[in-house]
Amino acid sequence: MRTQCERCGECCKAGGPALHLADADLFGRGVLGYEQVYTLRAGEVVHEQVRGGLVRLESEMIKVKGSGTQWVCGFYLAEDSGCAIYEDRPVECRALKCWDTSDLEMMYMRDRLARTDLIDPESALGQVIADHERMCSVERLWDQARALDTGDTNAAREILSLVRYDESMRQAFMYRAQVGSEYLDLFFGRPLAATVHQFGLEMENREGMLLVRPMPPERRPRLLGE
């Protein structure tokens, strides 16, 4: 039985940590930048580490970005299984002990960092984020995905409209604010076009025409409790 970290790196290879309110000062001190994190919005399907399965988020979550096909934490140093920001690592990293996950389980869902903790909701950027959330909410996509399952002929059109609006808003924001695409994953979450699979949808570009349809039941994400 382990009683201390053996620097195997497995926790880092599983992805970057979720951030909590106690981590907000990492941005002020320059340890983390907005381009190094991303937002998982309320309603998205995610893998919950504690229970070990897929769940829908009840509230948004900000995580450290990963890299590579396995989405390894962006601060993982593979050459020595180290951490580039070890002395300033987020609180989840400090709490995680693979031989005893009780500390992590106690704080896992509590005091999670949200975009409003980093960006003033009354600022111009905060208003743009609110507009995007209102027009391209995850819940709206869920509603249309359910409607498509029931044979609603308008649902596919509505889903594609949401995907296109999301993309056009991102492009317009980059142009007007003169910022790179690396910041968009925090401000607006992941692109809808890249996440439709979690809603039981699949998209196809057929001869320049974007199509959307329900996934076969056997390929759909299965949530805990289903």
Q: Can you give keywords for this protein?
A:
two-stranded antiparallel ribbon; 10 strands; single chain
What does this structure look like?
The chain is α+β, with helices and mostly antiparallel strands and 226 residues long. The chain has 2 domains: 10-116, no CATH class; 119-219. Helix content is 33%, strand content 16%. The protein is built from 9 helices and 10 strands. The chain has helices at 10-13, 25-28, 91-95, 102-107, 115-118, 124-135, 138-149, 155-177, 184-187, and strands spanning 37-40, 45-48, 53-56, 61-64, 66-67, 72-73, 76-77, 82-83, 201-206, 209-214. The chain has a two-stranded antiparallel ribbon with strand order 1-4. A hairpin with a 2-residue loop joins strand 9 (201-206) and strand 10 (209-214). The chain is globular, with a radius of gyration of 19 Å. The relative contact order is 0.15. The mean pLDDT is 91.
